[in-house]
Amino acid sequence: MKKFVVAAAGLVMAAGGFAVFNVGAAEAQVQTRGAPRGSYAQSCTGSYVNQGRLYADCRDRSGNVRETSIELARCSSSDIGNDNGLLVCYNHRGDYEDNRPGRPGRPNRPGGGWDNNRPGQGGGWNQSSITVYRDANYRGQSMTFREDVPNLRSLGMNDAISSIRLSRGTWEVCEDANYRGRCEIVRGDIRDLRNTGMNDKISSLRPARSGGRW
Question: Is the separation of the CB atoms in 193 and 136 below 8 Å?
Fold first, then answer.
């Protein structure tokens, strides 16, 4: 397993962490600390902690993905689970993020491309995020992005991605930095990038515009 080192604004996270990045220009800023363990991880992706709240994209009983959050201080040491797309613990239920005003986000920009039998999803703000993994089958070091990433080299993930999960939206992934070289549109989870010819070849990624390519 390759060592995973993130250098951003003087911060370094050791291997094994799970982080969400908002990327501006060529730099990334670590926004959160690692998410706690819990049964929610079986049906939720993109989990991270920000200002004492756990955020995740969880599937409900219909298979739809809902963005949800819960205040960790209310859960103490009890297990955090997923109840119909909502984060819950022993004595507390979280919130659906689409019902919480004033939260930051990004517009969804659906398109066409690899869909893994899953259609693109519409919606307004904060509807687009991608989680990338070093190994196939969603294993190994992982990172979640909600913004353009023109160069993965500074994040230690350049030419190192082997599987992808989308919680929402549609993304463009490219072989070279700054969205150059071969690019593909991703519209759903990809368990093994070897089937696409892009395994360990992605150097930049960003939400895709409507209609597919930029």
Answer: yes
Sheet holding 27-30, edge to edge: 27-30, 18-24, 139-145, 129-135, 163-168
CB 189 within 8 A of CB 59: no
Q: Cα-flanking dihedrals φ and ψ of residue 99, to 5°?
A: -105, 0
Backbone angles phi, psi at 65, to 5 degrees: -95, 130
- pLDDT tens string 55-85: 888 988 888 888 888 988 888 888 999 999 9
pTM higher than the cut 0.70: no
Pairing of strands 139-145, 18-24: parallel
Which CATH number is associated with domain 39-99? 2.30.60.10
Q: Please tell me the CATH superfamily of domain 6-31+107-207, with its number.
A: Crystallins (2.60.20.10)
Q: How far apart are CA 31 and CA 126, in angstroms?
A: 16
CA gyration radius for the chain?
A: 16
